[in-house]
Structure formats: C-alpha cells, structure tokens
Design goal:
3 helices; Immunoglobulin-like; 11% helix; single chain; Jelly Rolls; 3 domains
C-alpha cells in the first residue's frame, strides 16, 4: 500500500495529503476511490485473516485481530527463519521449560521432551533413552530429575549418538535418588553441562568405586586406596589405581589378619605410581601371604 502518487489529480504535496488552505486559495488533496478502497481492503484482509467478520459498527476490529491468536501460528520446533515468534514457540525453544513430564517405568524420550524437564520416580532401577540427535537444533536442552529410590540409567537412542561430559565421551550414566542432569545437544552428542550428577563425571571430581579405588577433589588433592599381599620377604609393592599427576605425599597401611603386625613404608620406594610396604608381626617375623590395606594421598 502507498499514497496515490500515480494519480495527478490527487493533489499530493511532497508525496503526502494536504488540507485545503482558504487563505491562500490552495486546494486540498483528493482521495481517489481506488486508494480509499485499497486502504479499506488492506484492513479488512487483516480482520478476516484473524477469523473475524468486518463490521461497520465496530472500530476496534483491527486491534482485536492483531492481539488475537488467529493471525499468528507457532513455527515448527527448531525453526530458525525470520517469522514472528509466538510465546508458545519461545517457551518451547528452551528459554523456559517447554513442559514437564513424569514417569515411573522405562521411557524412550522424544522430540516433544526437548526443552523441558522430565522427572522419574521408581522404587526399582529403570532406564531412560535420550532422543536421537538427528533434526534437533544445536543448543537445545533437556533436563532429567530422579526423585525415586531406583537408579535411572540414561543412554542414547542411536548408536551414532554419545553422552559427553566436559572432558570426554561417556557411556550410559546413572542418576541416583535426588540427582539431576542437564544436557545440551551438540552435533551427535548430548553434552552433560549441569545438574548434580555433573560432579561425578567431570575430571575435577572423578573417582573409582570399589577396591582399589580413588577420589579426586576440587583442590587437586587425590585419595587412593587398595589391597596387597606380602611376598616371602614380608614386602608388597602396591600400585595405585591412577598415577598422581604431580606428587605422592603419604601412605597409611594396615595389616589385615588375625594378630598384631607393624606395616612400614620402605624408604625411597615411593613414586607417583606406587610404593613398597613391609610387614612384620609382633615378634619381628615376616611371611608371605599377609594382607595389607593402604590409603595414600597425593596431588
């Protein structure tokens, strides 16, 4: 729509309508029927597109059409064109949770869960499969919550997809009771970027359960523990589960047996990879097959 510039008799001034000036005798602009009809039809088109019936008795129909839902449709999920975004689209895109779902059984998550929060509540272990990454916009998020007593094992739907932490790719991860996990989609990976479970899978806090085992701390300190058996000389060289990155600091060891014994660290044998221990009983005797548990510190 434009001013009727192509109509010489319209009497526009600088391309715009002007009023008649009786003092100077200057005539005012004329509004051609084609222009008046055009303006009216432009407005009626908007009103009708919104599902309303044009009425001469109403003067707020254009505003009602623009404020209503009839003119605006929600774009497809992950759409990135320049169309107007409805609040429904914005909500679904992850600026706030797109929705909330709760399950108590094994569940395969879908595109509908992306951008939302999913809660699990089962008394027994269950599994949750993340949506395939194909067709999901990079940066899309998904948050999982476990409020049940049963562990939730989270894995990917496609063999080509991976679950990644900040340091490396992971296999399935476990959510214990009260734990949360927030993922963001990057390429063919669901990257673990938040939630309480993140601490277990970052190199800063990584560890190994069982015996032997270890635990890293945010300060850089590392605890390691394990078990060894003496040789005929009453000695055992214990190998730490991981090498201390910087230095070995100390070790405390205990004889695991039926009587008193003394366990010492053999001087000069400690390395970042392990240490030699020697065991004597209360009579100063040594023997093979005596068990020793140790707890080592380093950083």
């Amino acid at each position: 729509m434009d001013y009727p510039k192509s109509v010489p008799s319209a009497g526009l001034m600088n391309g715009r309508f002007v009023d008649e000036n009786p003092l100077t005798g200057t005539p005012g602009s004329l509004i051609p029927a084609s222009w008046g009809n055009g303006v009216t039809q432009e407005i009626i088109n908007v009103i009708q597109a919104a599902g309303l019936t044009p009425s001469e008795q109403q003067s707020n129909q254009l505003l009602t059409a623009l404020q209503g839902s009839g003119l605006f449709t929600t774009a497809a999920q992950f759409d990135s064109d320049r169309s107007v975004a409805t609040t429904e689209f914005v909500r679904r895109s992850g600026l706030q949770y797109s929705g909330f779902a709760a399950y108590a059984t094994n569940t395969e998550l879908t595109l509908a869960h992306v951008g939302g929060a999913v809660s699990f509540a089962s008394a027994t272990p269950i599994s949750a499969t993340l949506p395939g990454t194909t067709g999901i916009l990079h940066g899309a998020t998904l948050t999982l919550i476990n409020v049940g007593a049963g562990v939730v094992t989270v894995s990917t739907a496609l063999a080509a997809d991976t679950i990644g932490a900040s340091s490396a790719a992971l296999g399935p991860i476990d959510l214990a009771r009260g734990e949360t996990a927030q993922f963001v989609k990057l390429d063919n990976q669901w990257r673990l970027i938040g939630g309480t479970v993140l601490l277990k899978y970052t190199s800063l806090f990584s560890g190994q359960l069982g015996n032997p085992g270890y635990q890293k701390y945010a300060s850089g300190n590392i605890d390691q523990w394990g078990y060894g058996t003496t040789d005929a000389n009453g000695e055992v060289f214990v190998t730490f589960p991981i090498s201390f990155p910087n230095a070995f600091v100390s070790v405390v060891a205990t004889h695991a047996g039926g009587d008193a014994a003394i366990v010492i660290m053999v001087g000069g044998t400690a390395t970042r990879q392990g240490v030699r221990l020697k065991v004597r009983n209360y009579l100063g005797q040594v023997a093979a097959g005596w068990g020793v548990t140790y707890f080592a510190k380093g950083y």
